[in-house]
Amino acid sequence: MEWIEIFDLSIFRSLLRSTAPIAIVGMAAAMCSAAGVLNIGLEGKMLNAAFAGVYASYTFESVWAGFTAGIIAGLLTAALFGLLSFTLGADEVLAGLAINIFALAGTTYLMRTIFGQAGFFSDPRIVGFEPISVSFLRGTFLEPFLSDFTYSVYLMFVLAILLHTVYYRTRLGTAIRATGENPEAAEDAGINTVRIKWMVTVFSGLLAGISGIFLSLENLTMFTEGMSAGKGYIGLVASSFGNNTPFGTFGASLFFGLGDAIGIRLQGVYELDSRLILMIPYALTVVVLILIGIRQRLRVRPVPITESSIE
Fold first, then answer.
1. Region 192-199 average pLDDT
2. How much is the pLDDT for 302?
């Protein structure tokens, strides 16, 4: 049956590969939101890192040169967001949107200027990450489920556990949550809220940079215009749906990853139009936003006014 062809082992592997970039950037968004920072600029950070990674990998023919360049690009973009928002007092949403627009236009211009290519750039000199083969799982029934994935899949799980520990088990996590929940009380308790916001913003640049690098140097070794394809925004939605917690964001990212994986699989089985497949993550984003709105309305139910309450 065709549905058996869709839901097989390959879709599980595709699920993890599709989830990884969303989960990594979603956890960056979760840490920022927990500290009261609405970091719309994650999309631009990913895009800048993806381009810088390809450029450095192509120039030096080294995947680690590309990784380093992508990290630097993500951190610099995060520093720009912090400068605009915390130092100059710009609106965080407008600052993030400006960064996203600048990143899209800037990377397109640089690709056409440096490489003389429009649309996409690919070259044999671009060195990407190879899948990791877990030797002690070789020949066991766990090998198809846990081995031969790229770095981003393993990092996704490590980050979820590590950030959950930081979030709930450390003083830093308490300071981050206090900054987001009640900044005035946090300041009274001796927490430097501006420093906390800078910290999570720079950390988000690191994670968004890593996510962008994996987009361009893992399963594909190339750069395309607008390569992030809304994953920064989807990460924001995933973090909101997951209550801005690491495990919650991870679970929400799995939902988006599953939709992406099923769409790719359906394209192979039913030969669907690729444009329809590309629409699936955005359709799921609308569905999740509706669910978030319903959840918020259920949380804040109006208290009925009675004569006794008036008295």
1. 94
2. 53
CA gap 214, 212 in Å, rounded: 5
Q: How many CA atoms lie within 13 A of 82 on its CB side?
A: 19
Residue range 292-308, pLDDT digits in tens? 778 777 776 554 544 44
307: tokens are: 């004569």
> For the range 134-140, what are the long-range contacts, defined as Cβ-Cβ under 8 Å and sequence gap of 24 or more?
none
**Which secondary structure element, helix H or strand E, spans residue 120, and what is its range?**
strand 120-122
> Which tokens belong to 197?
């916001």
| Sign of the Cα pseudo-torsion (167, 229, 73, 149, in order) | positive
| Residue 196 · residue 35 · CB < 8 Å | yes
For residue 193 the two structure tokens come to: 């809220």
Where in the chain are the domains? 2-129+147-296
| Cα(237)–Cα(249) distance, integer angstroms | 9
Rounded CA separation 309/311 (Å): 5
Strands 120-122 and 222-224: antiparallel
Sequence-ordered list of residues with C-beta below 8 angstroms from that of 103, at least 6 positions apart, any chain? 43, 44, 45, 47, 48, 77
Q: Residue 145: pLDDT band by 50, 70, 90 thresholds?
A: confident
91-134: pLDDT as tens digits: 999 999 999 999 999 999 999 999 988 888 999 999 999 888 87
The DSSP annotation for 22-48 comes to HHHHHHHHHHHHHTT---TTHHHHHHH
DSSP 182: -
Once rounded to an integer, what is the mean pLDDT over residues 42-62? 94
Pick the CATH number of 2-129+147-296 from 1.20.1560.10, 1.10.10.60, 1.10.3470.10, 1.20.1050.10: 1.10.3470.10
- H or E segment to which residue 93 belongs: helix 92-110
Helix (H) or strand (E) holding 278: helix 274-299
Give CA–CA dist 259/63, Å, rounded.
Answer: 30
Torsion angle, alpha carbons of 245, 251, 257, 259, to 10: -120
